[in-house]
Amino acid sequence: MKEPADVTAPLHIESRTHLLTKIGHLLKVWGPGLIVMLADTDAGCIITAAQSGAQWGYSMILPQLLLIPVLYVAQEMTVRLGIITKKGHGQLIREHFGTGWAWLSAGTLAVSAIGALLTEFIGVAGVGELFGIPKWITIPIATVVLIAIAFCGSYRRVEKIGVLFGLAELVFFIAMILAKPQPADVAQGMMTILFHHSSYIYLVAANVGAVIMPWMIFYQQGAVVDKHLKSTDIPKERHDTAVGTLLTQGIMIMFVVTFAATVGLKGNHAPLNSVGDLASALSPFIGTSPAKILTGLSIFGGSMVAALVVALAGTWGVTEVLNWKHSLNEPLKKGNFGFYIIYCLAHVIGAVIVLANINLVELAVSVEVMNALLLPIVLGFLLLLEAKALPSKYRMHGIYRVFVMSSCIVVMIFGLYMIGPTTGLW
After folding, report:
1. Once rounded to an integer, what is the mean pLDDT over residues 350-371?
2. Average pLDDT over the chain, rounded to an integer
3. How far is it, in rounded angstroms, from Cα 390 to Cα 386?
4. Is the CB of residue 289 less than 8 Å from the CB of residue 174?
5. How many CA atoms are closer than 13 Å to the CA of 81, on its beta-carbon side?
6. How far apart are CA 306 and CA 310, in angstroms?
């Protein structure tokens, strides 16, 4: 007797093909949110998270959780602005507010980007020194790699490489498991708010003031334009941004928890100001080799993706104001020569300053003040552009608009507050 035909087989094949098609389209859209958020957890942020956990234990988890919606709503605005207008942040400022304001925004962004690059190169050098490799080897190699990435001829390729670097930060999850944090202690710490301690408030303010870095806004808006995303892609890019936000804050929480469960319990500990300090502090608790490898990989990944994103953000911002061609989708030629030169110079200048052993203390203070001053300007322009450059259909409305504006105002206030403690004015 003849076997009946399996009529379900074509349905399974069709369903699988449809699923693969949806995943493929999703991956084509996703990327700008992931890479910019992974870059947000750079060497400086990681060290700050470790210091927070070591000093204040699990009580610094709650501020990290509260910052998730704040970070998301600010970056979500750049998604709509970039996709709908097809223009970068600097170009929109120039068109709607004039060349003077555009130059102010781009100029301070460029200085901020160079300052951030110093942090990333110092992070790369610190990782190399963990394994006995001098910075005269690691910094030039990192510089060449970062410059070469931009010449891939495609924004999508650059983005994939950057995301791969950033995902290396997730290996620190192993360190958190090895630290064996106690769930009851974590839960109790999350419910503790130490507002009566000025140093606790200082660390909270530092985290709030740095959660939205100015270069992040310039980068993600430029990225969605260079990726040629359409209005129909907005929901998927919002998901991309949301997942990236959870990842970056999750990484911060991993470092807080790991150092709270180890160094924080010990009490008197050495200062945690460098990559070597972090690895040395963890060694007695999880072993020397695991501490070096996990800390090194995580900070190296964060430093590399941040260096890539920061340099591109600064380059896009400056070239948009100058009205130069500024796409990664075109090979080097006469028309876009300036774009690639500025990108290369940003990395070279940052590398030379770090290699020259210049006293970076005063420079670091200046960069922090610059970021604090730039944040209200950038967020202010972001809110104004959202209301002015977008059609009514794509603007914020109702309660969501009130929440976003309130969140941005809080971040701007904390950013300005950080100027006092940083400079010693108060």
Report:
1. 66
2. 84
3. 6
4. no
5. 29
6. 6
Would you say residue 9 lies in a domain? no
Residue 218 in domain:
yes
Per-residue pLDDT tens digits for 157-214: 889 999 999 999 999 999 999 999 988 888 888 887 776 677 777 777 766 766 778 8
* Residue type at position 302: G
* Count, residues in the chain: 426
CA distance 395 to 409: 18
363 domain-assigned: yes
CA–CA distance, 120 with 83 (Å, rounded to integer): 29
Domain residues for the domain of 192 are: 33-423
Distance CA(320)–CA(314), nearest Å, equals 10
Residue whose entry in the numeric block shows the structure tokens 């941005």: 408
Task: State the Cα–Cα distance between residues 310 and 84, nearest whole angstrom.
Answer: 24
CB 131 within 8 A of CB 296: yes
Tokens standing for residue 245: 């936000």
Is residue 152 in a domain? yes
Q: In angstroms, what CA-CA distances link 17 with 11, 30, 68?
A: 10, 20, 35
Helix/strand/coil for 241: helix
What is the CA 133 to chain-centroid distance, rounded? Answer: 27
Q: Which two tokens stand for residue 150?
A: 């931009």
Domains held by the chain: number? 1
- DSSP annotation of 285 reads H
CATH number, position 383: 1.20.1740.10
pLDDT for 85-95, tens place per residue? 999 898 899 99
Query: Which H helix or E strand runs over 74?
Result: helix 61-85
